[in-house]
């Protein structure tokens, strides 16, 4: 369960890179590594990738999974945004019986400068509870956080947060707004179908109950609208 996203050198750049952060390793440990993957060449339908590890300094996000990473663009600059996820409980609390026990990460927003490898944590009053397996949508200088699961409370609150990042030449400014009209869902699949439209499919509304409703998420004039769409005729094995 790593967090992944695409990254362009600029809003108008066609060169795309891919950012991979965290997740579980094959031996069931958690990773705090961040990797940048890019296409080196395309030859006879064969694509060659280069993957490099990026070292971070500052407020480095702890190892985690089930979180999100996105890229925002503001004033000609770009920055990665890491939010949410789960991590193992502290080493002092990890006994043999509790070795794989996890807890919500603190609800900090991390800004990551991919050029210089600097990371800074922000604590926002609107974000009080840790979240995992939420949906995140990045649009220019704004990220929308939808749904998610709070392990501490064992609930899937109908969250909808708008996190806006301003990147002047000085220190970044990060603010969060709580919006109405959220959805109670975790582990859903989000697919972009046009420049201003996304489709949300699947996920869970309870631990043992899948969410069979599909939604269209659309944007117009920086306003977000979430509406139900016609549900496919699910096959029995999906149900």
UniProtKB/TrEMBL annotation:
| Biological process per Gene Ontology, one example term | chromatin organization
Q: Which SUPFAM superfamilies match?
A: Galactose oxidase, central domain (SSF50965)
| Keywords on record | Chromatin regulator, Metal-binding, Zinc, Zinc-finger
Q: Quick one: a GO cellular component term?
A: nucleus
Determine the domain of life of the protein's source. Answer: Eukaryota
Alphabetically, the GO molecular function entries are: sequence-specific DNA binding; zinc ion binding
Specify the protein name: Recombination activation protein 2
Q: Which organism is it from?
A: Miniopterus natalensis
Q: Which gene encodes it?
A: RAG2
